[in-house]
């Protein structure tokens, strides 16, 4: 891992200000309660005025954070400064009240845990090192634990050393857990955001296609009227050259507009109730055509046992999901991609096979999860992070699809099997 990534200050590394403010108010109230309870109720003596001043520093910084810092999200640097302050503050309170022998010393690990969940690994490492340094110093230097006098009660050095080690182990474990949990949560969040972007984009494209078709249909009639009127005017004008040239231009431009609209509505000229409907074979054909324009691979579409031709909705989920897996097959294939459509009265199945390297063994069980990368040398190291497969799988599953990944026995590459119950996929129209 590069230092530039370890100590990065990116926009996604931030901590919600309100979360930190609430945590710090809880800590301050807890500190004041413990100090007053021990000093006034339990009658245990320690430098209470100094303790109050230490707590006051935390109170003032939290008021500054709450009312002077306008940003809702705290960047890595600013959040770390407040957490370091909290670490120093707690260390001072522990120094005044027995050091590491104080049972509240376990709270020293909290700033590092908060950092591991929300901030960069570099910040977490810094806080972890500072925590270890302060704990070590508190083991050696501190005021005696309140209530322990004349050597009547003393903690063995071996006990203190064990307690010190236990805190370190807890710190490392919880920090590591926080880092992994935060990383997984962020990756999942990014994948979901990407998924939402894809759906929105597909809906936008479908909407534009429908609007184009509607515009072509609506403009057809006025253009036809203009064409008819122009031709009539030409007849009436006859040989008047000063006007006939303009009329000819009008007729030619009207014709050109008609041709443009024809091209726009080429694939959309269907009856209104079926505007967003198609059958799977036609949908697959449309997707394949878009890839054939940019790829020299041999893409074959076969239909087997095609017993039940029915209409499906042109949903963004279905279009993008199929396009994703077909695109992946084309990307990794050597020469050939085979798409097989099978339907019967109950089940419809689409198999996408290729003659590429197939799915690496080390990621087979994780296919469909975001941000996975194979270590196999047979696959290009830049093959991807699995986000595309995750998006395609998730979108198709939203359309009640079942997916199965395997090796194609015929072509030797990857095979993706997508199946639905006809009742769940069939359009209601």
Mean pLDDT: 76
Structural class: alpha+beta
Overall morphology? elongated
Q: What is the number of helices? A: 12
Question: What profile does the largest beta sheet have?
Answer: 5 strands, mixed
Q: Low-confidence parts, pLDDT < 50 over ≥5 residues?
A: 1-11, 267-274, 377-385
The count of DSSP E runs of length 2 or more, i.e. the number of strands, is: 9
The proportion of residues in beta strands is 5-15%
Strand order of the largest sheet: 4-6-7-9-8
- Rg measurement, Å: 35 Å
The percentage helix is 55-70%
First and last CA, distance:
55 Å
* Order of helix and strand elements from N to C terminus: HEHHEHHHHHEHEEHEEHEEH
Ordered list of secondary-structure elements with their pairings:
Blueprint: H1 3-6, E1 14-16, H2 17-41, H3 48-67, E2 73-75, H4 76-96, H5 110-118, H6 121-140, H7 157-237, H8 241-264, E3 277-279, H9 280-292, E4 298-306, E5 311-313, H10 316-332, E6 336-343, E7 347-354, H11 387-398, E8 402-407, E9 414-421, H12 422-425
Helix pairs in contact: 2-3, 3-4, 4-5, 4-6, 5-6, 5-7, 6-7, 7-8, 7-10, 7-11, 9-10, 10-11
Features:
429 residues, two-stranded antiparallel sheet
Overview in brief:
The protein is of the alpha+beta class and 429 residues long. It has helices at residues 3-6, 17-41, 48-67, 76-96, 110-118, 121-140, 157-237, 241-264, 280-292, 316-332, 387-398, 422-425; strands at residues 14-16, 73-75, 277-279, 298-306, 311-313, 336-343, 347-354, 402-407, 414-421.
Walk me through the structure.
The protein is elongated. The protein has 429 residues and is an alpha+beta fold. The protein has helices at 3-6, 17-41, 48-67, 76-96, 110-118, 121-140, 157-237, 241-264, 280-292, 316-332, 387-398, 422-425; strands spanning 14-16, 73-75, 277-279, 298-306, 311-313, 336-343, 347-354, 402-407, 414-421. Mean pLDDT is 76; it is low at 1-11, 267-274 and 377-385. Helix 3 runs antiparallel to helix 4, helix 5 runs antiparallel to helix 6 (121-140) and helix 7 packs across helix 10 (316-332). Strands 4-6-7-9-8 form a five-stranded mixed sheet. It has a two-stranded antiparallel sheet with strand order 1-2. A two-stranded antiparallel ribbon has the order 3-5.
